[in-house]
Amino acid sequence: MAIKRRSGVKARHPKRSSIRKGKRTPSRKRGKQARRRFKGVSAKSKRDLKLQFGLRLLRTEKSIANAAQKSGLLPAKLRAYAIKKKLLIKRGKKWVVQKDFPRKLLVYSNGQEHIITVGKFKSASLVGEYMAGVRWFVQTNDLHHLEPFVGKSVKDKSGNRFPFETRPNVLHRLTNSGGSSFEDVYRLVV
Length: 190
Fold this sequence. Notes:
Blueprint: H1 14-20, H2 26-37, H3 43-61, H4 64-71, H5 75-84, E1 88-91, E2 94-97, E3 103-109, E4 112-118, H6 121-140, E5 153-155, E6 161-163, H7 168-176, H8 182-185, E7 187-188
Antiparallel strand pairs: 1-2, 3-4, 3-7, 5-6
């Protein structure tokens, strides 16, 4: 059945008419959901969260413009924040992302779990390998997963040494005590 129109009256655009009636279009709904996500968070906290997210993206994107666009920031603001935190350095005409971000990590040492901050990528990688070895040891009870770490230690940013815990009974106690997990603690510190 055909819709009859009065002569001389143009059909309205469906989006425009819905906006006039106060209904939201799909693109406006997305904006409302995004605003709802940060409900109860102060404006300064929102900005800090966006900047942190932008820095995280900057490590993977390698392009300030792409990272800024995905995090909802202006490229100049993200660049200024990264320079202020000493995460970007200029080499020639290009900005290069530093590899050595400070990281917060969980490590087992001297019969206790410690949350330490390391400044070098190599140290963070060593701690990650150690914690993976501990996880494999606890699952299989095979000591050869811990052999590469016997007698080794890691230094945190303040210069304190943390020798890796390799005693089997202590590792079983620490992992089953219900403390923090490596994934919960691991953070980039900026």
